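User: Hey, my collaborator sent me this sequence without any context and asked if I could get a structure. I don't really work with proteins. Can you help?
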Amino acid sequence: MHKIIPFLQIFRDKAYNASIFKADIISGITVGVILIPQAIAYALLMGVPPIYGLYACLVPLFLYALFGTSKQLSIGPVAVTAILIMSGVSQLADPFSEKFIALVLFAGFLIGVLQIIMSVLRMGFLVNLISQPVISGFISAAAIIIIISQLSESLGIDIPSFKYTHQTLAYTFKHLIDVHWITFVMCLFSIVVITVLKKWKRSFPGALTVLMITTIVTYVFDLDQKGLSVIESVPKGLPSFNIPEMSYDTMMALIPTVLTVTFIGYVGSIGIAKSIEMKNRDHVVKPNQELFALGIAKVIGAFFLAVPSSGSYSRTAINDEAGGKTTVSSIIAAVMVLLSLLFLTTLFFYIPKAVLAAIILVSVFGLINFSEAKYLFKLRRRDFVVMIITFVGTLVFGVENGIFIGVILSFVFLQYYSSRPHIAELVNIPGTTYYRNINRFPDAIQSSNYLIIRFDNQLYFGNAGYFKDAIQEYVTNRNPKPKFLILDNTNMHDIDSTGLHVLEDICQYLEGLDIQLLIIGSIGPVRDFLKRSGFTDKLGLEHYYLTIEDAVNHAENRKAHDKVHEVAVQFNEKRRSFLD
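Assistant: No problem. I've predicted the 3D structure and written it out in structure-token form, which is a compact way to encode the shape of the chain:
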């Protein structure tokens, strides 16, 4: 039970005491007062009424507290998830409509189901298919899309719904003369104050403070009657049990959005949880259990009108800085939201939408990652290219297409470099028994008697042809021809049937030139494969060595194959997996 419900572990060793509970209460209240305005703001960004953002902070938070393995991760509505849902579901229904809300709840249910399935099948590794440059490029572009999406609320301009971001931007520039100055000043004031308070003390509830002040000002001066948009009435009370509208056709239409949110949401959540784990070193985050916790929070939450939620970096950092020790702090934060739903919703009427836009803008400004782009440009240009193309693709073609472009491009680069791996000719460094790349040590000794080649990758169908061509080129360029070709397999971690055929072709090619093939340093799985295939016996046991030095001794001195070197052809006769 402790493995299924990690929350029980908190009380298992009776280490939970009054001081820890006090710390959890303080951090829970701190996160709660920050969570409430953010939940309202992100609900509007998602295209649903504010109340649904608050609903997402009840059941999901309680469930994650029970099943999650991160002690400080704070889940709830977040900007990136909100814009992904808005972008995908808005193609099927108009935001804020009853149909749109139903689709969002069903999408949340499907995302949760998929995450639970991935957890049961232990498929948390699949998130590794999305590289860090893709994530950085996507999130930076998503931040700009979010900023542009808030222009209507922050400037007070009635902007039609456009399919592409640049259309929204062009329309805004054409109608800057229509700016509602009260709205603009309110938004600008909120951004400045929230930013200043955030720099002064990160855990201070600056957003809530500004929200309270501007709401009072709006009420006292009747600013809603002067064109300032407010959120108006918010239903009072707790969410009722509700079964999301489900159908096969709707599910198929939502699949692209579901897949995108599932992976992006989980990557973000597990990344935040792991960073806090490394910082505190007081708990272990289990990826598959995290998938289950996030999934069950969405599945059950969907029955209580909760829109999809993910891990929030800002709230998690605040939870940690405020002293949160366990997931009890998340329960306290959920209780704060519960109390606001029961007693404070009547006070939400005069909350200006411009202030909610300011809260969103302040939150996403930091997501535009210029430093990562500069770092990748200096470190590895192909990762920089992937990041930039993902960034541009997301801006031009939309969030779902943008991340798809980034993932495909990553795999194209991966396949390209995997199909042309590093191959080096090794030569002896004078006075030593070390053999290194001739291009790095041009003054090292090159023997005319033998040629040493190291192949730095698995040998499989994608690069087998390149490997064969490279070997033939090395041999052709040597004059006179060497008597031995020593193949260093220490970095060849796998081989498939195509690679085996190429290895046989190379062996036959060398025999035609009266060149002996010597293989050194093959690791266990490769030795097993070569033995099963019959290649080991066909080539002859005397052609396998443990080290380059042993093979060179044979090539130079015709030293007999010592019996101790039989370990170079050791193989495993134990039962192997079905796919091996």
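In plain terms: The CA atoms of residues 233 and 349 lie 5 Å apart. You can pass these tokens on to your collaborator as they are.
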